[in-house]
Amino acid sequence: MRESDQPGYAAGRYMFYAFWITLLAVLTIAFNNWHADRLNPNAQLSTTGEGREVVLKRNSYGHYVVSGSINGQPVTFLLDTGATAISIPAAVADRLQLDGHGYSRVNTANGTISVENISLDSVAIGPIRLRNIRANINPHMHGDTVLLGMSFMRHLEMIQRDGKLTLRL
User: Fold this and answer.
1) CA-to-CA separations, 14 to 4, 17, 42, 50, 167, in angstroms, rounded
2) Distances (CA, A) of 59 to 55, 62, 70
3) How many alpha carbons lie under 13 Å from residue 14 in its C-beta half-sphere?
4) What is the percent of the chain where pLDDT is above 90?
5) What are the two backbone dihedrals, phi and then psi, of residue 4, each rounded to the nearest 5 degrees?
6) Residues ≥6 apart with Cβ < 8 Å to 45
7) d(Cα 84, Cα 98) in Å, to the nearest integer?
8) Residues near 92 by Cβ (< 8 Å), separated by ≥ 6?
9) 150, 83 in Cβ contact below 8 A?
10) Nearest to 47 by CA among 122, 128, 157, 150
11) CATH number for region 46-168
């Protein structure tokens, strides 16, 4: 009698495949969570100072990326002290249903471009919330990360130490 003809052989074979499929699924989920934490270690913010201070960790690329909101809608920010204003990719602006009011020319690392001006009702990082913040909608930006420029950052005290950035209102 061949081994494949024995009772229980098929069940054992299915269990073997189920084990490996489950293991691969668990490892995939774990890797995705690990990778997401390396890109945005500030998805869950550490707050101090009675809600007027936020401590950010650098991501694996050395940037400060943080989850926040524009007009109460969730977004991912990349802090950019070299940007004069908040710069929102057009696709994100469409998702947030933001409408600009007029155009202006801005200088970027890639040259001068035309952007649409907008005033945001609110911009928040954790408990820090500012109102009526100048921004622009950038049709040349790709992805879903919003550049958090100095139109927001200039209102905050910034202290960088040991791979952490403390923002204080």
Assistant:
1) 13, 5, 42, 56, 54
2) 13, 5, 22
3) 4
4) 53
5) -70, -15
6) 54, 55, 56, 66, 67, 125, 126
7) 19
8) 75, 144, 146
9) yes
10) 128
11) 2.40.70.10
The token pair at 79 is: 């802090």
How far is the C-alpha of 136 from the C-alpha of 103, rounded, in Å? 9
Spell out the domain ranges in the chain. Answer: 3-39, 46-168
- pLDDT tens digit sequence for 100-117: 889 999 988 788 999 999
> pLDDT, tens digit, for every residue of 16-75?
778 777 767 676 665 555 544 556 766 766 555 566 889 998 888 888 999 999 999 999
Amino acid at the residue 103: Y
Give the C-alpha separation, 51 to 151, whole Å.
21
pTM: 0.74
Structure tokens at 165: 């950035």
